[in-house]
């Protein structure tokens, strides 16, 4: 215990001797810091200050002088700057955490997209085949409808044989729609709607 106290006294005397040899000035009052003055050295700017200029109590001064090198003391100017730096570092750390979270979410979204692309590639053939078939069927239906003729107000007695003869006569004799052999080719005929045995309602003929 005595050896430890002697080491602390020696360190304190050495600090005072160094201050005396270098004739350091107090940064606050611009007066010389003598060996008998109670003064502290800022751990950041390395300048010396009278404790009364920095409003450091004697008890705090004694504690700092007797403490090991792990405890640091900052003057008022450096303390304000260090607090700003500390706040800035906290903001940087928070932003870093946010970026890491965003990157993690982005990575998950990319993995989901890759999975969707894989599924799309697997189903692409069937999807394209079905779409092409639908298009071809629609085009075929359109080409069939291009040759359709609809007639209205033709006598409707419910007999499609009579309808065919009537329609053939109209196409040949009135419209002149014949092929090279002078014939009319009728693929099919249909009455649109349900037959009603009345003269008021006549179904269109296609």
UniProtKB/TrEMBL annotation:
Domain PHD-type: residue ranges: 23-81
Name of the protein in question: PHD-type domain-containing protein
Stretches assigned to coiled coil: 89-123
Signal peptide interval: none
Gene3D superfamilies, sorted: Zinc/RING finger domain, C3HC4 (zinc finger) (3.30.40.10)
GO molecular function, a single term: zinc ion binding
PANTHER family with a match to the protein in the record: PROTEIN CBG24663 (PTHR37445), ZINC FINGER PHD-TYPE DOMAIN-CONTAINING PROTEIN (PTHR37445:SF3)
Assigned keywords, A-Z: Coiled coil, Metal-binding, Zinc, Zinc-finger
PROSITE patterns recorded: ZF_PHD_1, ZF_PHD_2
Origin: domain of life: Eukaryota
Pfam families in the cross-refs: PHD
């Amino acid at each position: 215990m005595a050896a430890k106290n002697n080491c602390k006294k020696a360190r304190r005397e050495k600090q005072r001797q160094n201050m005396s040899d270098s004739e350091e000035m107090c940064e606050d009052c611009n007066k010389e810091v003598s060996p008998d003055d109670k003064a502290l050295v800022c751990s950041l700017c390395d300048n010396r200050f009278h404790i009364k200029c920095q409003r450091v109590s004697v008890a705090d001064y004694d504690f700092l002088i007797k403490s090991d090198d792990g405890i640091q003391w900052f003057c008022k100017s450096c303390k304000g700057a260090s607090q700003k730096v500390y706040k800035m570092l906290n903001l940087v750390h928070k932003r870093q955490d946010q970026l890491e979270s965003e990157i993690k979410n982005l990575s998950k979204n990319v993995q989901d997209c890759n999975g969707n692309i894989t599924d799309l590639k697997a189903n692409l053939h069937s999807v394209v085949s079905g779409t092409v078939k639908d298009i071809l069927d629609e085009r075929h239906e359109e080409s069939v409808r291009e040759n359709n003729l609809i007639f209205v107000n033709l006598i409707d007695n419910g007999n499609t044989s009579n309808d065919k003869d009537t329609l053939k006569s109209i196409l040949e004799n009135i419209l002149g729609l014949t092929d090279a052999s002078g014939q009319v080719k009728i693929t099919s005929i249909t009455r649109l709607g349900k037959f009603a045995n009345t003269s008021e309602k006549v179904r269109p003929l296609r």
